[in-house]
Specification:
Strand content: under 5%
Oligomer: single chain
Number of helices: 2
Number of domains: 1
Order of helices and strands: HH
Distance between the termini: 22 Å
Structural class: mainly alpha
Radius of gyration: 16 Å
Shape: elongated
């Protein structure tokens, strides 16, 4: 079983708003780095959780 990250519409909207804010105060490059880092972190967290919480098949 592999976990996947699904962002809610609200979370997607918040990422877009964060991106737009950072573009306005800094640059598109910086905004992309920040929002990409957030998305990458969430995906890595799902991988860690998937790896950590594998069901035990030989329950005693």
């Amino acid at each position: 079983m592999s976990l996947s990250v699904v962002f809610t519409p609200e979370a997607e909207d918040q990422l877009v708003e964060l991106y737009r804010y950072i573009v306005a105060v800094k640059s598109a490059e910086v905004a992309a780095r920040y929002t990409d880092a957030i998305i990458d972190f969430c995906q890595e967290l799902a991988f860690v959780l998937d790896f950590t919480f594998q069901p035990q098949l030989d329950a005693a």
